[in-house]
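Usage example:
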Amino acid sequence: MVHLAPGDPFGAEGSRLTPELREQLRVRFGYDRPLVEQYGRYVANVARGELGFSHSLQMPVATALATAIPRTLLLMGVALALSFGLGMWLGVFEAKRRGTAAARATNAITIVLYSLPAFWLGLMILLAFAYWIPIFPAGGMRDVALADYMTPGQALLDRVKHLVLPVLTLVLWTGAYVARYQRAALAEVLPLDFIRTARAKGVPAHALVSRHALRNALLPMITLAGYLFPYLLGGTVVIERIYAWPGMGWLVTNAIGSRDYPLVIAAVLVGGIMVALGNLLADIGYGLADPRIRAR
Amino acid sequence: MSLIARWWRRLAPPGRWATAVLLALVALAVLAPLIARHAPEAQLDIVGLKSQAPDAAHPFGTDRYSRDVLSRVLHGARVTLSVATLAVLLSAVVGTLYGLAAGMAGRAVDAVLMRTLDALLSIPRLLFMIALLAMWSPVPVAGLVLLLGLTGWFDVARLVRAETLSVRELDFVAAARSLGAGRLRIMLRHVLPNVAVPVIVTTTLGVGNVIALEATLSFLGIGAQEPNASWGTMFHEGVVDLSGMWWLAFFPGLAMVTTVVAFNVLGDALRGVLDPRQLERASPGTRSAAGKTV
Amino acid sequence: MTATLAAGCTDRSTGDGGDPGGTVIIAVPGTFTPALPIYSVTATTVNITSQVYDRLATAPENLSSFGDAGFEPRLARSWTWAPDSMSIAFHVNPDARWHDGRPVRASDVKFSFDVARDPRSGSNIAPLITNIDSISVRDSLTAVAHFKSRSPEQFYDLVYQLYIVPEHVLGGVARDQLTTADASKLLVGSGRFRLARFEPGARLELVADTANYRGRAKLDRVIFTVAADGGAAVAQILSGQADVFEFIPPDLVARLDSNSPARAVPFPGLAYAYLGMNQRAQRGSGPHPLFGDRAVRLAVSMALDREAMLRNVFDTLGVLGVGPYARRLADSAVTIPPFDRARATALLDSAGWRAGPNGVRAKGGRALAFSVMYPTSSKPRERYAVLIQEQLRSIGARVDLTAVDFPTFQRRQEAGEFDAALISANPDANLGGARQYWTAGGMARGGQNFVKYNNPRFDALLDSAVASFDGARRRDQTRRAWQMLVDDAPGVWLYDLLFMNAVHRRIRTTDLRADGWWAGLADWTIPADERIDRDRVGLRPAQP
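Running the assembly step on the lines above writes:
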């Protein structure tokens, strides 16, 4: 696939490489072999854990990814937890107050938040809180100069400050998705017979939701976690770009500009694996949580 | 005709508003060449009319090349809407075919097809598209539609497959077959009407997603290109000037958000039009496909 | 004595900083990687190189390349010309040390030259040092450079291009592996800053070399930090997170008002930008079907309202192009084609380009349609491209824009795979540098004659000007050569790259040089009473 793009990776170096040198590099990295052999070699290498060499960063791809992935996971992890919390709370809130003005307003807000592209939301938030009212840093992961000279307490505060805006963007964006999903799940459960029975018995509305309906609506939420991974990953890639957060998304968007194919492929591979793992975990979680499956 | 009338009556007010908004948008987009005062790429006066804030002559202001933003938003609507609807239609067609095939096939083939589907679902869509488009840059509009369409059919496939499977078991199907009717014809006659409405709902909700996705790709510079600038392309050009020239991002953003919200509201409302039990054919213990497009 | 001599020559700080100290943070839009001196091409890597490494001597402020007048000692504390000027003996400063403590020796000078010249290393300065035959070692502190011919620029050629690198660090690396070697592990120099840390994609930290032979730098550390793009870098400047940003865009200069923590500092450069028209066909070896014809090139030149485009892109901060050189080096007697659309259309008419049905001219079945290529890394060039596209529509030409990433732009530029391209040239001040851009010699690999301008009479005039030891004759020949070139209109001279840096107010800079605003970075100071948190860190090591 990468060979369909114009220009071989060493052609990108331009005047830095003489033709003799370029030829040497091509042979060394195997770009002169037939495509099939290259592919075979690549797969074999990946199996061994050898992901190639990034010529734009001048280091092995694995090293570059190894430092970047934890940062993306940090961002995604915090965002995932908070957006789940926010989304579920919103969904339950809407279900409890069904028909009221508050529920309608919340519904409208969630629809709008859900409809915004992540990049636009990120841009607006960056504009608002880093440019116009500069209370948060305009990107990056930690203070550029002082990060290594801070006490652990100061360092923690610094990290948190840099996390706020990207996480806020992701939480609002993903939280809306979760809220709608939660609301739909509850909407499916609430009309069911056992709820109507409980209501006839006189159980108050809010208890109906939290005690009876929620437990059943929780199962689909575990499924949601599985779907959420690729969704969140896509959002994180763009957010990392806007906030210069040095994770996988940042690496990938830069690597594409410099035609650093090994890095691009490896990053997409890793992204796919992360998502597959997430799905697997969701499957396991679902299996554990659903009594019907457990009983089997 | 009466079907549509029935639906309209059952459509909640938000859905009706959304339909009205969308029809207006489509009308504006179609009539853009007539309504827009200037050509979208015309540079009116690169020294005197550069970066003007909105005023009477240019209600949405001008950009740094002295192009009228209102005209560009109107023309951008054509690109954004056509790319999104075509892509979503392509997804619907591909998904339906795939779902039919999986539902009609034997156990083994079905299992393979569904495992493949699961695998494809796990690929992060944006990352994948970034990787492909960056290498294909600049991409023609047709290519963009193709890529967007070919990466969004998974939910439709699941829906159609579920419906196909249940129709398969019905008695009259076996009866019809014994009378010599072709399998495919039967499935089409019985599956398609049942599956049409859920597919329409999914598709409507999908348009919003595709608009946002295309805008993101164009924002990154690898989506729609000039002279076929979409709303997202306008962001790509305007993002550097954001703090000083708010109108460059505000108006395309407003247009985009309005459109996507309208599609999502309409999709929600359409779902309410249907018998909710028609949506969920999978047994309670399995994953709900509809959840993905929420 | 050497230390005071050096201090006296280089101390140009406009204000006494008192104790040395302070941290300067330079915001860089996009990622970067440090490179060895023979590979430094981009502005950031050249900056880093010049802090970490030294040359034998440094060129004078006026950038004269004539002889050795005005050059000041660096690693060479003095030099002696042979009577026949075919060789120069450089006496290495005995106090000079590499950052790992080893002394700098003449053998390092010889090694540096050999590596730069070796085709296996693929260095990009090789074509610029062709006049030097070899460097030999007379004793441990004396290196002798042997030249192939005398020329007024022979001293400049050697001294200006060659940074001295340590043999004991780089000698162990095979020459053909140098380009892929991890430069961050090999960056050992003799400069007043040394490499402290490099975090790819995030930042690079230089720290003052306290035992340096020229005296320690007046700053403690310089940090290059990566920002997402220009906008993010500006945000860092405006919020005080970063101290310096080079080439701040004109629209944002207005934001550096008295309330902002940084001020705008303009400085001169030698770079200029032009719309180059490829005179050779992309495929095959014949002339370009459109731009092989001088009439077309002239018509394009006269159809563009360069002044209006300049105002649009740069507001009041632009410097209009006057020819294939920066304005400060221009000869006012040389005149370029004026903006005259009527004449442009008349030229095309008489050359046989008839207007077609859709407004696009055609001749002999071929439409007046071509692509303009530009790198996505340059916002001004992107803007010019859009403006040019629309302006040329008025004379019946259809222009497509080809935006490519910078590495691809460089490659296609070199390979001649373009019709027209927005090229930025950054020549050295000397005439010999002009050869790289406009003579037949510049068409070879490593040259900068991308449009394949080929005029033997121009080459001859330039050659004799370069070799001439007579100032008046030199000027006259140069003038005639340039006029010949601009009459041929190989490109449209658009603008000089005017550099405007944003610099934090607390920083006292030295005078900024045209060949590198960073040259005096080691002498920038921060007054003690204006220091902020990050300046007080000092030289203590990090505890990450």
